[in-house]
Amino acid sequence: MPKNKKNTQKKTSKNTKKTNREILEQIIRVDHAGEYGATRIYDGQISIFGKNSKIGKTIQHMADQEKEHIDKFNDLIIEHRIRPTALLPVWNIAGFALGASTAMLGEKAAMACTVAVEKVIGEHYEEQLNLLEDDHKDLKKTISKFRDDELEHHDIGIDHDAESTPGYKIMSKVIELGCKTAIAISKKI
Ligand SMILES: [Fe+2]
Ligand SMILES: [Fe+2]
Hints:
Largest sheet: 2 strands, antiparallel
Bound molecules: fe (ii) ion
Shape: elongated
Order of helices and strands: HEEHHHHHH
Number of helices: 7
CATH class: Mainly Alpha
Strand content: under 5%
CATH superfamily: Ferritin, core subunit, four-helix bundle
Number of strands: 2
């Protein structure tokens, strides 16, 4: 990472580092895609459990925060004139399918899905905070707030016994890899 970092920064006359435009575009595009995917995962889980079950209410709390996140990135896409990923229709279906299929395996499996997804997203937001310079202080604040929300979701999953799901390790690895792949693709396409 430090190797590329040099190329991602420009110094202005006032010696304030500016975030490279391409990096900014990738950050907003991928976060918009990820938050959209997250809303679809929780939609899929709620479609199985219903809103009024105990687990459904817990998931709804996380879904409400994801709604806040996607609303913010919808605004940022417009404000910064960023082209959204062309793959939104894919993440629409893939997110919902991931949420619904893990929920069909049971509450713990649904929470294992949350733990895997939120772990990757939390780390991803952390990395972005290191890429953004102080010319985007507001965006950094937004991302660090959202990172905290994602880590809260991760911890909710752990508290709901995600780790005792049969096949937890392999399931986590598959979902984590899927998320990382989706992130890599959504930055560019
Ligand atoms: Fe989120
Ligand atoms: Fe989340």
